[in-house]
Amino acid sequence: MKQNIMALALVTACLALPAVAVPAVAGPRDDIVAGFAAAAKAADPAFTGFDAARGKALYESQNTASAESPSCASCHSASPLKAGKTRAGKAIDPMAVSVTPDRFTDLEKVEKWFGRNCNTVLGRECTAIEKGDFITYLSGL
Amino acid sequence: MKVSIESRRVPVWDLPVRAFHWALLACVAVAAATGFLFPANWLSVHIWAGAGVGALILARLVWGVTGTTYARFANFTLSPAAVIAHLKDITAGRMHREGGHNPLGAWMVVTLLAVLLALVASGAVLLGGLFKQGPGKGFLSFATGDLMREPHELLAWALLALVAAHVAGMAFESWRSGENLARAMVTGDKADGFVPAARAFTARRGLAAALVGIGGAALMWAGLTANALPPKGVPQVVADGTWQKECGDCHMAFHPTLLPAASWARIMTSLDDHFGEDASLPADKVTAIAAFLAANSAETSDSFAANRLRRLNAERPLEITQTPYWTRRHGDIADAVFKAAPINSRQNCAACHGDAASGTFAPQSISIPKETTK
């Protein structure tokens, strides 16, 4: 009897865990994307929504601002499902949210790296649309 | 059966003398091989061999005043007159067979012991000052240690020459006298008929054991106590959390003692163009990291790495891997080795230096990992 209750408690806990964990991670990411959407709308009233295909194109685009890092894929690996590597050889966890669930969940971190990496690779800041597209692409893989 | 006088064997070298001789040879061989031939990460073996040489010689010095007849330094014929007489014997082809060492042999033994002691002493100073290891670490500066580098090396070459002369002299005397002297150092006896030592001694074993035991224990205690001292001039760096995180995102967070303050200052004011990458940070983080780096820069440390890497490449003063010392020490490592996993880059010091995070870079901690394939 006691064992049955224990087993029941365990099963309930296991079932409850993803239910608790998923929103805790997805919430901040949704907020961040919503923030970019608001900024995109403010900049361009014709904005209708983010597009994973445009995000993929940005991820794979070849640029000329930096000889060492011509593309987001240079560091983040050609496939976002695979681990990448910095120029100095340090491993970078895969960018796809399906593989690295805590991707794009900390606004300060997201802005820090968009700020740096867009400047390094593109020689300019990324627009809110580009940022939203990028996250949308990587969230849907 | 009648035994001829020449075939009767008489004990000369007592067991401690023989044990000392062959143990010393073993320690010296290991120390010489690891010092001259082996890579830097054999330093621990080199140190223990050297410590063994030192301990053996100290014990031999005790036995030299407490041992049996031929072990005693009192029976070493070192006077100039004896040396000259011996040289005259050789040139005149006269054989004057001795129980112990002939005068040249006695001088050889004394010189070998002196050179070996000097090697051990200079090695301990090097170890303490340069690497902040061993009993000298608490009171020797890098500069003092560095002063001993050339003497240690010169003494080592002198030792090789002396060993060669010792073996040649032994072979020559064996040939001249018909007594295999190397064998005598194994069995301890020589054919009778030699000129006995000036004075006969019986061993004072109790006294010898007491001196070696008490002296050894005292030295061991002093050594261990000194070894527990904090390294002189190398303050412990308390890692700053912001630095560790922000400067460790793209490469390992390079220890602040690896570059002078001026280099760090320039790095921290040019993060938006950091070796071709934008590594910019909010102003408050820049201020905190810059303060941490300035407070713990190479100038604040007398460590081995800080001293060696302090001299910069004037053209590229922000890069540790461009300093003359770094390029020289890593010159033998092929580019492909750095590029291959799991090392991936020159900047990944920790892949080959197990103690890179602490800024120590001790020779013992060097090990190039095997290439991994995925």
Q: What is the share of helical residues of chain A?
A: 55-70%
Query: How are the strands of the largest sheet of chain B arranged?
Result: 1-2
Total number of helices of chain B: 15
Q: Percentage of helical residues of chain B?
A: 40-55%
CATH architecture of the largest domain in chain B: Up-down Bundle
Q: pLDDT below 50 for ≥5 consecutive residues: which ranges of chain B? A: 1-5
**Strand order in the sheet with the most strands of chain A:** 1-2
Structural class of chain A: mainly alpha
The largest pleated sheet of chain B is described as: 2 strands, antiparallel
Question: The CATH topology of the largest domain in chain B, please?
Answer: Fumarate Reductase Cytochrome B subunit
Give the CA-based shape of chain A: globular
Order of helices and strands of chain A: HHHEEHH
CATH-assigned fold name of the domain at 51-141 in chain A: Cytochrome Bc1 Complex, Chain D, domain 2
Describe the structure in your own words.
The complex is a heterodimer of chains A (141) and B (374). Chain A is mostly helical and 141 residues long. Chain A has a domain at 51-141: Cytochrome Bc1 Complex, Chain D, domain 2 (Orthogonal Bundle), CATH 1.10.760. In chain A, 60% of the residues lie in helices and 3% in strands. Chain A has 5 helices and 2 strands; from the N terminus they run αααββαα. Chain A is globular, with a radius of gyration of 19 Å. The relative contact order of chain A is 0.18. Mean pLDDT of chain A is 87; it is low at 10-26. By secondary structure, chain B is mainly alpha-helical. Chain B folds into 2 domains: 9-227, Up-down Bundle (Fumarate Reductase Cytochrome B subunit), CATH 1.20.950.20; 241-365, no CATH class. In chain B, 54% of the residues lie in helices and 2% in strands. Chain B contains 15 helices and 2 strands. Chain B has helices spanning 15-36, 43-66, 80-92, 103-131, 142-147, 149-177, 181-187, 205-227, 241-246, 261-268, 283-295, 304-309, 324-329, 335-339, 349-352; strands at 9-11, 189-191. In chain B, helix 10 packs antiparallel against helix 11.
